[in-house]
Amino acid sequence: MRSPTKSRRSPEPLAPEPVREAGPASLPLEPHDGLTPVAITSEWEAIHLVSDPLPRTIARVALPAVASSLLMTLFFSVDTYWIGTRVGASGLAAASIAVFWIWLIVSVAEMVNVGVTAVASRRHGEGRPDAAARAAGDALLLSLVLGVLCAAIGFPLVSRIFALMHAPPDVATLGARYLGTYLLGAPLIFGFFAVDAAFRAGGDTRTPFVLLLSSVAVTLVLDPLLIVGWGPVPPLGVAGAAIATICTRAVAFVLGLAIIGRRGVVRFGRPDLRTLASVVRIGLPTAVTGVVFSLIYGVVTRTATPFGTPALAALGIGHRVESWLYMVGVGFGAATAAIVGQNMGAGRTDRAERAGWISVAFCSVFGVLACVVELMVPERFAAVFSHDPAVIAEGTRYLRIAALSQVGICAEIVLEGALGGAGATLPPMLTSTVITASRIPLAIWATARWGIEGLWWTICITALLRAVGMLAIWRAGRWKRSLIA
Predict the structure, then answer these.
(1) Which has the closest alpha carbon to 386: 95, 170, 165?
(2) Which residues are paired to 230 by β-bridges?
């Protein structure tokens, strides 16, 4: 039975052990800073995340998170538009191949993001905001170190990566330029993920939204300026697109760092190895899932290479169109992770479970709409990103087949986030990795029998299977016994 909403003035115990009184809440932003004044990472907010009616709580926390995700999708879609229409099919194919390796980089950053969300949200739920701030501070330092390591290791290997993909020479050259530029900004990107997680762990999804809104507004102007060139600015092509992407994350990171320092959301000190071990232990399976997914997709993409540049470009168009729904799921998943983590910390596992199911239901409405629209007008989506008739035809075919998988994407993404918030990241890693790995033999077999359509069907069916897997894990309920030191 749902517990009644508590008064702001006199919150009552919500768990077997009462939530302890915290010190003063972190200071809100001043009104003249231009952001909504909030003190949302405080004990007061934690109480409301574990007591208010779930539909309203999920909507309040998820909507800014979804808006933040869609802002990034808007930017990447505009980015793809400029590459496809100004650089051409080769540039679009190059960015399509590079994005799988970018996913690999982001997966390493997600290790800290998922880990600190689980640890810090659990501490907020226990009524220990100081411990949550220290965990976030340790995780931020770890993120910056990992970002530097990724850049140092990855940059010298860029040319070899595209050689392994057997990409056409012009595509390989452009792809190496795009990925190499992106790698130089890896530390800033990793820092952004850690700052974002620190806000979300306390239930604050509004501040990351405002930060991204400001940075994306600037980089939407930078994108065409750097890609096409104007006045004294030379056309940089795909490298300009990568620079604009880095700027989006960098601006949000720098602004976010200033805000969390003033609010006390993050506190620095001597790193607590036990906390860092918990962050890595929880986040590592998610990172491994992403890394393996990227490597597998690299192999799967090679099965599309023999079908030419239009097939590679169509793969990129398909992912860009699907990213809108995917990022809606990411937003709901991030919000659900914080709600689940805080309710687990407060001993409300029943409420945490219902939060997962309600979030899936909310998000799946968007999945059904996306499926219907992609079935009805796929050619219009494809034509947005390319003027090449062959690319539009192949992109239309991909979208029409992949439309069926849109119904299940939200369940997969939301419940992966919920399981991460509970600290149970190993079962989804194993499930997702096994199903994704099956794409390699299935793609080889299917393309040999049905051509490129066989690859599109392989991607669609395995995506649906991953959704079924996440639903089964959440329903089994073993995640309720997850412990965080």
Answers:
(1) 95
(2) 233
Whether the model clears a pTM of 0.85, i.e. scores above it, the answer is no
Q: Which of 49, 424, 416, 361 is nearest to 203 (CA)?
A: 49
Tell whether 17 is covered by a domain.
no
Q: What gap in Å lies between CA 319 and CA 166, rounded to an integer?
A: 21
Decide if pLDDT at 5 tops 80.
no
Residue 107 lies in a domain: yes
**Total of domains in the chain:** 1
In a domain, 371, yes or no: yes
What does residue 233 show for φ and ψ, rounded to 5 degrees? -85, 115
The closest alpha carbon to 211, from 261, 253, 243, belongs to 253
How far apart are the C-alpha atoms of 80 and 365, rounded to whole Å? 26
Contacts of 273 (CB under 8 A, 6+ apart): none
- CB-side neighbour CA atoms (13 Å) of 273: 0
Three-state SS sequence of the chain:
CCCCCCCCCCCCCCCCCCCCCCCCCCCCCCHHHCCCCCCCCCHHHHHHHCCCCHHHHHHHHHHHHHHHHHHHHHHHHHHHHHHHHHHCHHHHHHHHHHHHHHHHHHHHHHHHHHHHHHHHHHHHHCCCHHHHHHHHHHHHHHHHHHHHHHHHHHHHHHHHHHHHCCCCHHHHHHHHHHHHHHHHCHHHHHHHHHHHHHHHHCCCCHHHHHHHHHHHHHHHHHHHHHHHCECCECCCCHHHHHHHHHHHHHHHHHHHHHHHHHHCCCCCCCCCHHHHHHHHHHHHHHHHHHHHHHHHHHHHHHHHHHHCHHHHHHHHHHHHHHHHHHHHHHHHHHHHHHHHHHHHHCCCHHHHHHHHHHHHHHHHHHHHHHHHHHHHCHHHHHHHHCCCHHHHHHHHHHHHHHHHHHHHHHHHHHHHHHHHHHCCCHHHHHHHHHHHHCHHHHHHHHHHHHCHHHHHHHHHHHHHHHHHHHHHHHHHCHHHHCCCC
Q: How many CA atoms lie within 13 A of 91 on its CB side?
A: 23
Q: Which of 23-32, 58-67, 101-110, 323-332 has the lowest mean pLDDT?
A: 23-32
Q: In Å, how far are 50, 336, 477 from 350, measured between CA atoms?
A: 11, 14, 10
Token pair 């687990």 is found at 344
127 phi and psi angles, rounded to 5 deg: 80, 35
Length of the chain: 485
Give per-residue pLDDT as tens, 7-19. 333 333 333 333 3
Where on the phi/psi map is residue 237: left (φ > 0), alpha (ψ -120 to 50), or beta? Answer: left
Full residue range of the structural domain in which residue 271 is found: 54-481
Question: Does 224 map to a domain?
Answer: yes
